[in-house]
Amino acid sequence: MALTPATDLGPATALVCRECGTTRDLGPFYACEECFGPLEIAYDFQGVTRESIASGPRNIWRYRGLLPVPANVADTPNTEPGLTRLVRADNLAESLGLQSLWVKDDSGNPTHSFKDRVVAVALAAARELGFKVLACPSTGNLANAVAAAAARAGIRSAVFVPSDLEAQKIITTAVYGGTFVTVDGNYDDVNRLASEIAGEQDDWAFVNVNVRPYYAEGSKTLGYEIAEQLGWRLPDQIVVPVASGSQLTKIDKAFQELIKLGLVEDRPYRVFGAQAAGCDPVAAAFKAGHDVVRPVKPDTIAKSLAIGNPADGPYVLDVARRTGGAVEDVTDAEVVEGIRLLARTEGIFGETAGGVTVATLRKLIDAGTLDPAAETVIINSGDGLKTLDAVAPVVAPSANIAPSLEAFRAAGLA
Ligand SMILES: Cc1ncc(COP(=O)(O)O)c(C=O)c1O
Ligand SMILES: [Zn+2]
Q1: Quick one: which ligand is closest to 246's CA?
Q2: Is the pLDDT of residue 194 over 70?
Q3: N or C: which end of the chain has fewer CB within 10 A?
Q4: What's the predicted TM-score (pTM) here?
Q5: Quick one: CA dihedral 383, 389, 390, 395, positive or negative?
Q6: Which residue among 84, 107, 115 has the greatest number of ligand 1 atoms within 8 angstroms of its CB, and so is best to mutate?
Q7: Which residues have CB under 8 Å from 117's CB, separation 6+?
């Protein structure tokens, strides 16, 4: 696939290797030709101000001047994700002994997870690069987002997931009507298969494989939004769920860009990663002081985070260490308790990934790793309606009664 003079990838100027720094021209590439390291987008940002952002659409395209997407991206049919609520979480803060806490509630996106952000950017770039089909291997949420975005754009989707996924995530992908394949294997098996298929199907954009450099940039919008919604400043601490590690590293990249552009004050912030104990390769490497991440076989109810061989794991370690953060993991029982705590205190029903993040927040506070006096943001990256099985055994109505006042009184609930 060759770029034409009409190709418009906005402020993106080149692809640069994260490992060896070799640059190459923009195109449908994702691995360095010199060292096989992952490629990242390099930019020349022009004329991006707080005012230019504020006058943009009420979705992620207000940040299009900071993304590898064409100038007219907002005019092409897309799911228009982003600008989700930043919720002041005083009740949860009080129950955890924190002074100032916010929940970035990304369950408010069109398919109810942060994946709509990355898919919207991948779709826009894939179109410019000449791809015809939007595809992905997924732990569930990405499947929803790709199938919906392709339907909206009027193109074909091809989605591959582990067959043991939550029923809610299977149904909410199948409904959009694309090609949808369940695979008898775990996510890492599905990911390997996707790479093989990508090698044969020239015009399939596997968003998180062969257009990954573009896709990953979509997570920067979480960082931009948090800063803008705080009144153009950075929080002191942020806790982010980690699967491949892309979201965490890109929130950090967003904060760094905002500092360099002078859009926020340059002051220290700490980034914390959250994993489930049943899939904790990055947390384990962090605690052991390792630079490499040893793959694991996932076994956790947090299926959306069940990536045993995380592509961006080493870069999560870099960010956590550079900023004075940490990567911690929590048990499945703690995940369930985290989901319930967020729901009970703030009226926000997060999926298992949200439970991982809340439980990790609690563990970091209890360990004295996270400063309870510092302003903190946590990400709720998905919707609890997609992982009902996690809480079904432990929540229930207060009573079941006959439709009479007498029965209500007898139940002792007044
Ligand atoms: C709800 C949810 N949160 C967080 C993540 C982690 O994303 P990343 O792979 O960017 O670390 C995922 C990934 O699938 C997810 O579905
Ligand atoms: Zn390289």
Answers
A1: 1
A2: yes
A3: C
A4: 0.97
A5: positive
A6: 115
A7: 60, 81, 82, 106, 109, 218, 219, 221, 222
